[in-house]
Write a structure and sequence with these properties.
Number of strands: 8
Oligomer: single chain
Distance between the termini: 52 Å
Radius of gyration: 18 Å
Structural class: alpha/beta
Strand order of the largest sheet: 6-5-4-3-2-1-8-7
Helix content: 40-55%
Strand content: 5-15%
Order of helices and strands: HEHEHHEHEHEHEHEHEH
Length: 286
């Protein structure tokens, strides 16, 4: 028996297709809402349902096309939480976000049970940092619920000798085969190179530079590098810049990724990215 949503399946599909329909129209922002106590940048700030809702509305008001909600930190050295804890964090807020924030909602999880719960609450996408390869039930859950899915590249180990671009392609080949066998339609899949996951600092930059190698898949590319530690050395906190140095570095890195084919950007700062992307799009379309 399927756990797909029944009462609002049409609404889920409409929210999913609302976002997918915007692909190709310009660079899109995914606003981050971390309902966690230990996320690296904003842990503890949006744990309550009201704070999460206000942050989601802020992102959408600033131009975000989708909101990504997470209830388990995936930062380096994070402590995994069981599914019941993750669901308990999401439960007070998720349906309210779906109904009130004014944009499709994605849930950042690698657990099939959370994906099914999120679909029942009306979330339109699942953002899986293990690219359908950690929980064997994740691909069937995505297929059954009709959600869209972000498939991210990841590794358990970091090997400086690894050709990271080749590794991304091999990883995505496996993920897309899993998706096809589960019955996930290709038009519902987004690829993410997984910046900051299973890579050295140098490999993170090589992954960004190598984004054109993902073009043959013909799928949208999402990049999530907002405020990550690999940018710290490039934008030290002691900078005299009038804008937060790591925000400047994030925008610069995201524009570089856009020039290499990325079209969706998972960020903490929606307004600043929307403004930067408006200029990028204007130049690109001239």
């Amino acid at each position: 028996m399927s756990d797909a949503p029944t009462a609002d399946a049409a609404g889920l599909a409409a929210r999913r297709d609302e976002f997918l329909g915007k692909l190709g129209s310009g660079l899109l922002v995914m606003g981050i809402v971390n309902m966690t106590p230990d996320s690296f940048s904003d842990g503890g700030l949006f744990e309550t349902a009201q704070a999460a809702l206000e942050q989601a509305r802020r992102h959408v008001g600033e131009g975000a096309a989708i909101v990504d909600v997470g209830a388990e930190s995936t930062r380096p050295g994070h402590t995994p939480v069981p599914a019941d804890v993750e669901q308990a964090r999401l439960a007070p807020a998720l349906r309210r976000l779906v109904e009130a924030c004014g944009a499709p909602v994605s849930v950042d999880t690698s657990k099939a049970s959370i994906a099914r719960f999120a679909a029942r609450e009306g979330a339109a996408f699942v953002n899986d940092v293990w690219g359908l390869q950690r929980d064997p039930d994740m691909a069937p859950a995505v297929a059954e619920t009709g959600m869209g899915v972000v498939v991210m590249h990841n590794r358990d180990d970091i090997d400086p000798a690894r050709d990271v671009v080749d590794d991304m392609r091999r990883f995505f080949d496996v993920s897309l085969d899993i998706a096809a066998r589960a019955g996930i339609a290709g038009e519902r899949i987004i690829l993410d190179p997984g910046i900051g996951f299973g890579k050295t600092r140098q490999q993170n930059f090589e992954a960004l530079a190598g984004l054109p190698a993902l073009a043959p898949y013909g799928l949208p590319i999402l990049v999530g590098l907002s405020r990550k530690s690999l940018l710290r050395e490039l934008a030290p906190d002691g900078s005299t810049a009038r804008v937060e140095p790591r925000l400047i570095a994030t925008i610069a890195a995201n524009l570089a990724a856009a020039a290499r084919g990325a079209t969706i950007f998972r960020v903490h700062d929606a307004a600043e990215h929307v403004a930067a992307f408006r200029v990028f799009d204007a130049v690109a379309r001239a």
